[in-house]
Specification:
The complex is a heterodimer. Chain A is mostly helical. Chain A has two domains: 1-25 and 507-576, no CATH class; 33-504, Cytochrome C Oxidase, Chain A, CATH 1.20.210. Chain A contains 17 helices and four strands. Chain A has helices at residues 3-13, 27-31, 36-64, 77-113, 121-143, 157-160, 166-193, 206-238, 251-284, 292-305, 321-349, 358-381, 383-389, 393-423, 429-455, 470-500, 559-569; strands spanning 425-426, 502-503, 542-545, 550-553. Chain A starts with a helix and ends in a 7-residue tail after the last helix. By secondary structure, chain B is mostly helical. Chain B has a domain at 41-149 and 269-333: Cytochrome c oxidase, subunit III, four-helix bundle (Four Helix Bundle (Hemerythrin (Met), subunit A)), CATH 1.20.120. Chain B has helices spanning 6-14, 24-28, 39-74, 76-82, 88-113, 117-147, 166-179, 201-209, 267-300, 310-333, and strands at residues 233-236, 242-246. In chain B, strand 1 and strand 2 (242-246) form a beta hairpin. The chains are: A mainly alpha, B mainly alpha.
Chain lengths: 576, 337
């Protein structure tokens, strides 16, 4: 079969006029949709909106810290506490945790897998509405007096603070937790049961492995957070005596419960990001991923280790020295699977034919930022060093490198990577590259400075500080403005592309996984015919097609796919 | 690792026309969702999803079980003491009720598989009745605790209305202000500097005794019966003459807890964890009633058959875990001795 034949069959199988966006129309067709792609898009819009709100609070915090004492008129120390709390809670619970699994994962996972939908479409829509209810609870909390507990809700402060919005936000996070649990359940069952013939475990794209490992954490860790926050509410309202020492409770028990979830939650954030980067690196360097099984198993290993390290958040909480030592040792061991991934990505790049597209720039940024974030995690995991660095800006910088510099950067990289697939439009590459560079520089200016601040002793969450720290704070704030500009540019060209962007081909980057084999945007049912699965990292059969302005799979070059032609499947080659 | 059932992949191989909405399998089986190829695939997916949900339930309760373990290791005396206020007989009856309802639920699944609609409906109704019975008995227990202020937090230290301890509270209130700063009925072991005793009458009672580290002691004291938890409560004064006796029937120790010199500090914690765990369990029983009721409606309408009994099977799994959690709760609270 010739390439020309192939492109014709593609458009015959998936006419551009009928895709998931145009399949049905009207508000209700979206609000009541069971299509994983539409649910993914709704998540994406919601998450990006929350990202904007959380970003505004971040800028308020950074601006307030420009000078010691009050900077913004009217922002008291008390109000500042609300600002950083809202920034943290919104970014963690409304943005980063749902961003990749729920938004990108929902859109991409079933298509990558070759399935028509997730296993439980109604549950999927239900978890989206749970997310909405959770978000509304956060809004209600804002109306009722907000909360100033920090995103960690540490007791006994959270059970005693006079801020009026503590109970609604705790219930909100409780509900968001169940949204996350149901998404995770859906993904696990989808990956177990809805793989089409030929999609064996070790043929799955690495993003699916990462999402699978993430889903396991979501299902197993989140219920503990849910019951914990529920107990904080009960403690606050009825003084049941679990976390508040005034009533015989144990605040350190709260910390154990909280971090038993919230440390694995860090891996809920980072694992799917690593999955995205595995895809981005391989596709945009047009080279077979190096060490597929190592990357796949390291995702699972990180998920398992993630459950065993929560105590490293509590080195200064009065744990026994033995427990501290054990937690410290296990914490160090997490660096092994993490490093395996980084080295495999670097080996994939080696001698690859690298296209410096926007998604690739984000992937490369990820490697740099994650390396810094991960390596500074070793500083914090070391017992003696942590005593000095605990609760300083060093910690703030470290987790921003991991949560924002890695998780969010990968999310935005993935958003660019799958943007043509989701919207059917290409964005402006040059603006994309510029924005990525601005964000990368702005990020490092903001947060690398905070490593210096923290190592010199600046405590986190402080409203006021010694004048000696001011230079660093000013530099850090300038970096945050630079990032804001970068994100502003990104938002502008992405929205612009929706209306004026070039039509996207089915496969603009040369990807091999199944989502690139259906049209952009995909049809309502994803695949008219259950696709046949090849090696999704074998790019030797991918060729640029001038007519299509995109890449196509040369089926005749792949012995595995060619084999099926003989069985008479060639006529519907598009989906295979 | 699970794979697609064998007959499923066969379906793919010879079904070149795809399996869209017009697929004949889907037309003859309206309950088969469009994105599944075969009933087996749909059934196994639903079942795996349910097992995952049960795993989250176990972890959800797991937090409470950890709390229980921590409390019991910190305050073993509170547990051995306070368990005496629980009614082992009622708890035991409830355990039997739940186990029987699990049996009827399992039979319901069996009847659904064998197309025995009558048996299915009867068993589901019996299961529902078991849930109702459990909650009624639970309500009797809760009501008693509520009435006697055997409750969580500050309520534990309020003297029950109409109880003769009221005058002590009134007496204590007079001196409460003087002792306000130091007296809290819960010994603040960790946070000794916590200001403001948070209680009303309870604080007063504690203040009257003048010692925050020991339970309130009054001049006339009702001591615990040596007989143990659920037996007769024999009130004995300091002089040793019996002054009060509650007996007969499923007797629970009533009301006198604040005057018991054996009352360990922090006893309210037991009732905190008791109400948290049994309360959350009761919520799960109520949810179970809702879904079983939905199954009853469905089975009367004839929606389930040996071809399609997934909902019955899944609700059965859910009901068994609710039962299982109670089987852990019962010995952990009722039969500590």
């Amino acid at each position: 079969m010739t390439t020309l034949d192939h492109t014709r069959t593609v458009s015959a199988v998936t006419p551009v006029t009928d895709n998931y966006l145009t399949h049905t129309r009207g508000f209700l067709s979206w609000a009541m949709t069971l299509d994983h792609k539409r649910i993914g898009i709704m998540y994406m819009v919601s998450v990006l909106t929350s990202f904007f709100v959380g970003g505004v609070f971040a800028l308020l915090v950074r601006t307030e810290l420009l000078t010691p004492g009050q900077t913004i008129p009217g922002v008291t120390a008390d109000l500042y506490n609300h600002f950083f709390t809202l920034h943290g809670a919104i970014m963690v619970f409304l943005v980063i945790i749902p961003s990749i699994p729920a938004a990108l994962g929902n859109f991409v996972l079933p298509i990558m897998l070759g399935a028509k939908d997730v296993a439980f479409p109604k549950l999927n829509l239900f978890s989206y509405y749970l997310w909405i209810v959770g978000a509304l609870c956060v809004v209600a909390s804002l109306v009722l007096g907000s909360f100033d507990t920090g995103w960690t809700f540490y007791t006994p402060y959270s059970t005693r603070t006079s801020a009026g919005g503590v109970v609604p936000v705790l219930l909100g996070v409780f509900i968001l937790g169940f949204s996350s649990i149901f998404t995770g359940m859906n993904f696990i069952v989808t990956i177990h049961k809805l793989r089409p013939p030929g999609m064996t475990w070790f043929r799955m794209p690495l993003f699916l492995w990462a999402t699978y490992a993430t889903a396991i954490i979501q299902v197993l860790a989140t219920p503990v957070l849910a019951i914990t926050l529920l107990l904080v509410v009960v403690e606050r309202v009825t003084h049941i005596g679990i976390f508040d020492p005034q009533w015989g409770g144990d605040p350190v028990l709260y910390q154990h419960f909280f971090w038993f979830y919230s440390h694995p939650a860090v891996y809920i954030m980072i694992l799917p990001a690593m999955g995205i980067v595995s895809e981005l690196i391989a596709v945009h360097s047009h080279r077979h991923i190096f060490g597929y099984r190592f990357i796949a198993f390291s995702s699972v290993a990180i998920a398992i280790f993630g459950f065993l390290v929560w105590g490293h958040h509590m080195f200064t909480s009065g744990q026994s020295p033995l427990m501290n030592t054990v937690f410290s040792a296990i914490t160090f061991s997490v660096s092994i699977p993490s490093a395996i991934k980084v080295f495999n990505w670097l080996a994939t790049l080696y001698k690859g034919s690298i296209s410096l597209n926007t998604p690739m720039l984000y992937a490369l940024s990820f490697i740099v930022l994650f390396s810094i974030g991960g390596l500074t995690g070793i500083h914090l995991g070391a017992l003696a060093v942590d005593i000095h660095l605990h609760d300083t800006y060093f910690v703030v910088a470290h987790f921003h490198y991991v949560m924002m510099g890695s998780a969010l950067i990968a999310m935005i990289g993935g958003l660019h990577h799958w943007w043509p697939k989701m919207t059917g439009r290409m964005y402006n590459e040059n603006w994309g590259r510029l924005a990525c560079v601005l964000i990368f520089i702005g990020f490092n200016v903001t947060f690398f400075t905070q490593f210096l601040l923290g190592s010199q002793g600046m405590p986190r969450r402080y409203y006021d500080y010694q004048p000696m720290y001011q230079t660093y704070h000013v530099v850090s704030t300038m970096g945050s403005y630079l990032m804001a500009i970068g994100f502003g540019i990104t938002a502008t060209y992405l929205v612009h592309s929706l209306f004026r962007g070039k039509r996207a081909p089915a496969n603009p980057w040369g990807g091999r996984s199944l989502e690139w084999q259906c049209s952009s945007p995909p049809p309502h049912d994803n695949f008219a015919v259950t696709p046949r699965v090849g090696d999704c990292y074998d790019f030797s059969v991918i060729e640029w097609d001038e007519r299509e302005q995109g890449y196509v799979v040369r089926r005749d070059k792949d012995p595995e796919l060619r084999g099926h032609h003989a069985t008479g499947q060639a006529g519907t080659a598009g989906g295979h | 690792m699970t794979t697609i059932p064998a007959h499923d992949s066969g379906n793919h191989a010879d079904d070149g026309s795809g399996h869209g909405s017009g697929h004949h399998d889907h037309a003859s089986m309206p309950w088969l969702k469009h994105h599944f190829d075969t009933p087996a695939q749909q059934f196994e997916s639903s079942k795996l999803g349910m097992w995952l949900f049960l795993a989250t339930e176990v972890l959800f309760f797991g937090g409470l079980f950890v709390w229980y373990a921590v409390l019991r290791s910190l305050h073993p005396e509170v547990f051995t003491y306070a368990a005496g206020y629980l009614d082992t007989v009622l708890g035991g009856i409830n355990t039997c009720v739940l186990i029987l309802s699990s049996l009827t639920m399992a039979l319901a699944v069996r009847f659904a598989q064998t197309d025995n609609r009558r048996g299915l409906i009867i068993c589901l109704v019996l299961t529902f009745a078991g849930a109702v019975g459990f909650l009624v008995i639970k309500k009797i227990e809760y009501e008693h605790k509520w009435h006697e202020h055997l409750l969580w937090g500050s309520r534990f230290y309020e003297v029950p209305p109409g109880h003769h301890g009221d005058e002590h509270a009134a007496h204590g209130a007079a001196v409460a202000d003087a002792a306000h700063a130091s007296a809290a009925p819960t010994p603040p072991a960790v946070d000794a500097a916590v200001p403001a005793a948070p209680l009303g009458a309870a604080a007063a009672v504690a203040a009257a005794t003048g010692d925050s580290a020991t339970p309130p002691v009054e001049a006339t004291v009702i001591k615990r019966a040596p007989g143990g938890p659920s037996g007769v409560v024999a009130g004995v004064t300091d002089e040793g003459a019996p002054v009060e006796s509650h007996s007969h029937g499923p007797v629970m120790r009533t009301g006198a807890h604040l005057e018991d010199p054996a009352l360990p500090p922090n006893t309210h914690l037991f009732f905190g964890v008791y109400f948290a765990m049994t309360g959350l369990h009761a919520i799960h029983v109520i949810v179970g009633m809702i879904v079983i009721g939905w199954l009853i409606v469905g089975s009367i309408r004839g929606q389930f058959s040996s071809q399609y009994y997934t909902p019955v099977d899944l609700v059965g799994l859910y009901w068994h875990i609710v039962d299982l959690i109670w089987i852990f709760l019962f010995p952990l609270f009722y039969i500590i001795h």
